[in-house]
UniProtKB/TrEMBL annotation:
Keywords: ATP-binding, Cell membrane, Kinase, Membrane, Nucleotide-binding, Transferase, Transmembrane, Transmembrane helix, Two-component regulatory system. The keyword Glycoprotein does not apply. It is a multi-pass membrane protein. It comes from Tistrella arctica. This is ATP-binding protein. The keyword Oxidoreductase does not apply. The chain crosses the membrane at residues 153-175, 182-202, 222-239, 251-269, 275-297, 309-331, 337-357, 369-395, 401-419. It is found in: Cell membrane. Residues 633-735 form the Histidine kinase/HSP90-like ATPase domain. The lineage of its organism: Bacteria, Pseudomonadati, Pseudomonadota, Alphaproteobacteria, Geminicoccales. One of its GO terms (molecular function) is ATP binding.
Amino acid sequence: MLKRSPSLVILCALAAGLLLGGLSVVAAVDQPWLGLRLVATEQSETALEPRLAVTGVAAEGPAAAAGVTAGMHLQAIADGQGRQLTLRAEDLLEEPDFLPTYEAIVDLLARQDLAAGILAHDWVQLSLIDPEGEPQTVWLAPAPMRPIGQLPALFWVQIVTGVGAMLIGGWVLALRQDDRGAMMFALSAPTLAVSAFCSAIYGTRELALDGGLFRVLAALNHWGALGFGVAMIALFLVYPRRLVPDIVPGILAVAMTALWVLDTARLLPAPAMGIHLPVMIEMIVILALIGVQWRLNRRDPRARAGLRWLGLSVALGAGVFVSAMAVPLVFGGEQLMSQGLAFGFFLLIYIGIALGVRRYRLFELDEWAFRVMFYTLGAMLLLVLDGALILVIGLDQGPSLGLSLIAVGFGYLPLRDLLWRRMVLRRRMPDHELFRRVIEVAFTATPVERAARWRDLIRSLFDPLTLAPSQTAVAVAVARDDGVLLLLPAAADAPALAIGYPWRGRGLFGPAHLQLARELTQLMAHADEGRAAYERGASEERHRIARDLHDDVGARLLTGLHKPDLPQTRQVIRSAMADIRTIAAGLARGAMPLGRVIADLRHETGGRLEAAGLTLDWPLDDGADDEVMLDYPVYRNLFGALREIISNVIRHAQATSVRVEIGMSDGWLRLVVCDDGIGLDIAASEAGASEAGAAGSGGLGLGNLARRVTELGGVLRFPETSRGTQVALDLPLCHPARRTLGVSDTTRNRT
């Protein structure tokens, strides 16, 4: 099969529908017009013939100018050449095949032909009876054409039905040009359109229509009605599951054509056998095939979902028409509603198909089908508006095109976007609400609660009929079973989930929903990582505080218990209190400015050395930058390291003075402490510090000192000096964990 562009096929189908509808309008208005609205009345007591009641008179019509008013009864019409027709109730019959015999139909068409010939004259005589029962005769000149505004609402119902059927049938065919089911459905559209257009012309005539035209239109109406039934039977023979070979729909079409020829030639016993009985049988077969397909597809939920919607649409749309029109006439009764109104129910079928494509992906059409339809309609609307402005209003091409673009841009496009969101995306939760819900899930206290909230979020988004752990693990969200099932990876302490039948079984998962699920699970994974990092940081902080309290404060207080004299005990307690102040400051303030840290170190070190009888040489202008913030682990270990060095000097160096220098360079903090004491064995000190850093202990406090420096990724050195001991520390300004996250060493946490 030669495939065409979907947009081209849709445009051709819509253009054909509009062309046929336009020809129907032309045929309906190209008739002589009296300006009357007539209805049939019962046999009166004073008249031998039934009369036609005048229920309305057009204000600008010929009848109003001749003095005809509502409430009168029209008895007969005549022309100036002696032809006269006494009117009957069946002259207003909406459909000829409502009559019981072919002879009655032939008589009706002959009367219609005579009435049309009379109305075609320049002057027509109307025989009327006024509301008081007095006979009146008036002459009037029928208008050559019926104003388009005088066409009744039932006419437009049938025109819209035909055009809508052509559009949706062409849409389905355009997007599934190689699918038998779509082809059978598309074939039903022109048959229904022909039937509806023909019925609209003769079923809403004012009084009469040319008999020859009437006969052709009635025959085409029968062909369309029978053809629609055959197309629907063929549809359910091949969709969702093929039941018969391809030749069977062709055989049905041949049989229908033969029956139509016999009916048109009036070779059947009665009109009902040519149209009403076959239509009723077709409806019974359609319902039976729906039941068969339902039975055969009982293990295919996607096919059943689509069949339920398609079958319901056909049963409701065609079923109402057949029940109201064909069934009563087959059993000798009268139709239950106007044929024009009954045709409106056929439009329900095609609207149902459009909704079925959206909800159940009928004929395997997806969201892109709506994109094609929306853009095609936009292009058609632009052309129609442009042509209307040129032909009706008389604008030039330039202004008309500009106005059309404005109308489409500001009118149709927002409406298209609204329909797309409502009909296809179906997501009602805004982005900010979705983000808030994800964060709430991620930071819920316990894993059980997190998993429960994650499932609640999924239910809020997709409203599925089933939500259960999946036996299939997936790395990203995937759709299965043609959109019936969506598999989600494990997230938020919940296992992998299988989501079935979204929106309470009223739809399927499409690409837009799959993309949403993937973005949602990715966002949830990032939130989980953030929560895990936060918990790791909190755990590390708790362990650090516990270690500081145990190793520093606890060790000092334990040492103080064993000091023999009170001054030494007090000194230990002061050191422990200093450690507590540092820990408390870290908990309360977090990062501290470098200048403040140096000032506190200078104050504390000076007090300790003064109490021990040593002098401190610490330059005040040390280049400290208050804009540089030190993380708590950095300044905490800096305090501890300097305290350890000063303690060693006081206890072991036998020095009289200490010099401290501190400065910054390229994101590093350098601390140098020199004393004028007896000095140390540098090689032994460096080896001891190295072993202590590995073992976590060492003499002269080198274990603690090395541990603190190592934790920060710093360097501990003992430079050679001519007198005393020199200890140099190089510490990074930024904690290693912060550097891992990419935080700058020199420009972080500015205040």
